[in-house]
Known about the structure:
single chain; about 190 residues; alpha+beta; 8-stranded mixed beta sheet
Amino acid sequence: MITDELxxxxxxxxxxxxxxxxxxxxxxxxxxxxxxxxxxxxxLTASCFVLTPDHSRVLLCFHRKGQFWVQxxxxxxxxxxxxxxxxxxxxxEESGITDLRLEGPLPADLHRHDLSSAFGSCRVxxxxxxxxxxxxxxxxxxxxxxxxxxxxxVDDLPPGAPADFAERLGTVLAEVRAxxxxxxxxxx
Length: 188
């Protein structure tokens, strides 16, 4: 199932674990509408926090509809086989950087948010965020879905980012670091 990553993930943050339980209940209750925006105003989206390998910079886009700086991402499409695939596809499309590589197959962030009327029939996005890395020196290219795409220091985010974005990015970085610190299970 396209949402298997949610069942496989154990977040390191208690707040994210609480959200995960809500996401799983939403997916169970919604069925196909959870991943198909044409079936209802609330649905999952997939996003990608694109970082430099040293975690010092993050790639953000200035979202055309929302008029704010945010990570790359969007709706699931029929050809997507997983949330991670959808996040990576969206990141490549919106950044123009084709050699992005996922940090891993599991999410690093959950964020449910209400949407303004600028988003049409979409009213709530249940976003599932992943992490991808760009090669040193990767230069983004603006797409049809964003007005600008640029690198920012993780410690100096641009004005116009959502109020909770710095906290969200901090949670993502903590999740990635926690994964790196976990011992790798022996292969048997």
